[in-house]
Amino acid sequence: MPKRVDHQERRREIAEALFRIAAAQGLQAVTLRAVAAEAGISMNLVQYYFPTKEEMLRFAWQRIVELTGEIAGESIGQATKTGDERAIVRAYLTGVLPADDRGRMLAAVQIAYFAVDVTRGGQAPDQEALLPHLVRALAGLLRQAQAKGTVPAHLDPRLEADTLATMSAGLLTGILVDAYTTEQATKIVDYRLDGLFTGGR
User: Fold this and answer.
1) How many whole angstroms separate alpha carbon 110 and alpha carbon 74?
2) Nearest to 134 by CA among 160, 98, 113
3) 3-state secondary structure string, the chain?
4) What angle do CA 50, 72, 179 make, to 5 degrees?
């Protein structure tokens, strides 16, 4: 009986090959042929799943979004159980920071996509943006904290959320270029949150 092929798993394997190329050389090095060689499969098989490079890039970005959510999801879930908005905000911010080699690779791929977006003048219309999701989540948590009195009421939760998200993105880039270790970046996050969550002390 012929072996049943898991087509979604095959697409993910192809995406992983794309990640390795993009993390090391940037998206400009990504071609159907290069990904096939990296994955150890034929170019015809890659084209069976992704007829064009653009389709492959779109799938790989969606996979990055999915993996990013999975990586941060556990710590966010644990923090959510506490009902402590500061802990949840911290989990969102530190959850995107690379803590190991795989995390660094995935972060580098995100930066590679962002570099293309800069030269293109914005993200592709069908490319789900990560930052707005983070900002919305943080703003909601800050509003809840304001209602409890743990974040000063006069602060603008949306602007504070934008500031935190931008800080987190900058720290991620700083880790990739060895300006910070993950531990140092986490201390910066804690320092910022200590100054923001003041109402409960």
Assistant:
1) 20
2) 160
3) CCCCCCHHHHHHHHHHHHHHHHHHHCHHHCCHHHHHHHHCCCHHHHHHHCCCHHHHHHHHHHHHHHHHHHHHHHHHHHHHHHCCHHHHHHHHHHHCCCCCHHHHHHHHHHHHHHHHHHHHCCCCCCCCCCHHHHHHHHHHHHHHHHHHCCCCCCCCHHHHHHHHHHHHHHHHHHHHCCCCCHHHHHHHHHHHHHHHCCCCC
4) 95
What is the token pair recorded at 70?
A: 């999975």
Burial label, 186 (beta-carbon count in 10 A; 0-12, 13-18, 19+): middle
CB neighbour list of residue 144: distance below 8 Å, 6 or more residues apart: 85
* The one-letter amino acid at 172: L
Each residue of 6-22: pLDDT tens digit? 889 999 999 999 999 99
pTM over the 0.85 mark:
no
- Report how far apart, in Å, the C-alpha atoms of 25 and of each of 18, 19, 115, 168 are: 10, 10, 12, 24
- Contacts of residue 137, defined as CB under 8 A and 6 or more positions apart, other chains included, come to 92
